[in-house]
Design goal:
heterodimer; A: alpha/beta; six-stranded mixed sheet; three-stranded antiparallel sheet; 9 strands; B: mainly alpha; 11 helices; about 80% helix; about 0% strand
Chain lengths: ~260, ~250
């Protein structure tokens, strides 16, 4: 369903993603784990047409996102690592906007928006501007939105970042249900090993842009002779702390966050 | 088509909801009208050029359209920073439609603003003798708005953040405005300046609008329309191309 072959992304001299290959089968839940700056988000961006690979190839359900952008984009829904909802629109308007972009017919759009907003407990707040939402509510809205057009593949880039345990639990239950009932293929990244262990069928561990291990959680534990996935992860990636260099965009976002806090 | 519509609608909703920006966008043209209009009025008159408010009003209307349009286009940077741009960039629609929707939305806001400024001009004493030419004035306003929203979008597609924005204001938007003949007639300026003005697309907006509203033209209305039309088409093409090349 998702295939990457010899995928490389360079930013100047820096190789963010270094010749990685993997294959995700239809209906599989595939977790991409790695320390900060390992290349997880860059990989997702290449899979979702936001970045062009330097070399190598990608296919989504047989479609190449570089040459068949529009068709490839129809296949997936994505929850980004950082916010991507419009603060100045209401929750409902954000959903509706998404539905129109993905040409979900009007009647179906209304039904599904109602169903999803209810599922993620946002229906009562549908007429509120997103700028009034808490971090958890925004996250839920983004997840609800990514499901609106019933995609075959869903990318979740650290979807549970900043969520409380209740919401996390609910999210993963829903994700598992989607996968089991509708055979949706899931590609996710997370920092929480117990989450990956709980939901993922297969895991790839990426570090310094390279995939260093790939397999089921049990295979990874056996391979490293460890008890938990977290131990396996540390055994494979070492325990030095990585610092990601903030891009100018992130710097601006940090400034904005600081502003918001003082308000 | 729905895609263009929803993006157009979004731009309108955002503008209507940002009250501080609405107030700011009327305050500036009013200040120009009062300070320049009445400040230089008697000088202009005694130089034998007639009523300065009459001359200035089309320039100030064009100015408000210019600023609003450029800002609307530049909003792409804003969306990039706040993350919303990604949502539109992964959508299964040609990016050119996204760009056109945004641009038309921003241009609509700018034209509405231009019409309000036109009313403000009437309130401070501006009189247009040629009512039948109002549709022509409207055409110039629309072309100007689309042109500069597309220019703003093109710039925002290549600027990574707001660091470069100050440069754009100082080295592009301000010169475009001040060298366009919005504030002074181009007939008696030095030759070098006249050449620069003739390279400035806003000169043709101002000139066309001035012809439509008070019947005075420097370049001739046909040339105004032709050049403005060509510039708008070019800006849409370049803006559309750069927008569809955005990588995040």
């Amino acid at each position: 369903m998702i295939r990457a072959e010899g995928l490389v992304k360079k930013f100047g001299d820096f190789t963010a993603v270094d010749n990685i290959s993997f294959d995700v089968a239809r209906g599989e839940i595939f977790a991409f784990l790695g320390p900060n700056g390992a290349g997880k988000t860059t990989t997702i961006k290449m899979l979702t047409t936001l970045l062009r690979p330097t070399s190598g190839s990608v296919s989504l359900d047989g479609l190449n996102p570089v040459t068949h952008q529009t068709a490839a984009r129809k296949q997936f829904g994505i929850v980004f690592q950082d916010p991507s909802v419009d603060d100045e629109l209401t929750a409902y308007e954000n959903m509706d906007f998404h539905g129109v972009l993905y040409s979900v017919p009007r009647k179906l759009r209304r039904e599904r928006i109602e169903q999803l907003l209810k599922l993620f407990e946002l229906w009562d707040r549908r007429k509120d501007y997103v700028k009034q939402f808490s971090g958890g509510m925004r996250r839920r809205l983004e997840i609800a939105r990514s499901l609106l057009h019933t995609p075959n593949i869903i990318f979740l880039d650290e979807p549970t970042l900043g969520l409380d345990p209740q919401t996390r639990n609910q999210l993963w239950n829903h994700v598992k249900k989607l996968n089991e009932e509708e055979q949706v293929t899931l590609f996710l990244t997370t920092h929480y090993m117990e989450e990956a262990e709980r939901v993922a069928h297969r895991i790839a561990i990426i570090d310094h842009g390279k995939i260093i291990a790939q397999g089921t959680p049990d295979e990874l534990k056996t391979q490293t002779s460890t008890e938990t996935l977290e131990q396996a992860f540390l055994a494979l990636t070492g325990d030095t702390i990585r610092d990601e260099e903030a891009s100018s965009l992130e710097q601006m976002r940090n400034i904005r966050r600081a502003f918001r806090r003082t308000k | 088509m729905n895609v263009v519509y929803i993006l157009w609608l979004r731009q309108l909703k955002r503008s209507a909801r940002s009250r501080s920006r609405i107030i700011g966008s009327f305050a500036q043209p009013l200040l120009f009208l009062l300070a320049f209009g009445f400040g230089f009025g008697s000088m202009f008159q005694s130089a034998g050029q007639g009523n300065y408010i009459q001359f200035l009003a089309p320039g100030v209307i064009t100015m408000s359209i210019l600023f609003t349009s450029i800002f609307s286009g530049i909003e792409v940077i804003w969306d990039r920073q706040f993350g919303f741009l990604k949502e539109t960039l992964v959508a299964p629609v040609p990016r050119i439609l996204i760009m056109i929707g945004r641009t038309l939305g921003g241009a609509t806001v700018a034209v509405l603003q231009g019409m309000v400024v036109f009313c403000i001009c009437l309130a401070v004493g501006f009189r247009t003798p040629s009512l039948p030419l109002l549709p022509l004035a409207f055409t110039f306003m629309i072309l100007t708005a689309v042109l500069f929203t597309a220019v703003g979008t093109a710039l925002a597609s290549v600027l990574p953040d707001f660091q470069g924005f100050q440069l754009v204001m100082n080295f592009l938007v301000m010169p475009i405005f001040f060298l366009s003949g919005a504030l002074f007639p181009l007939t008696n300026v030095p030759r070098a300046m006249r050449i620069i003005a003739s390279l400035d697309p806003l000169s043709y907006s101002v000139d066309g609008l001035r012809f439509a509203l008070i019947g005075v033209s420097h370049f001739g209305v046909t040339l105004d329309l032709a050049i403005l039309g060509a510039a708008t088409a070019a800006a849409l093409a370049v803006g559309g191309y750069l927008f569809s090349r955005i990588q995040i």
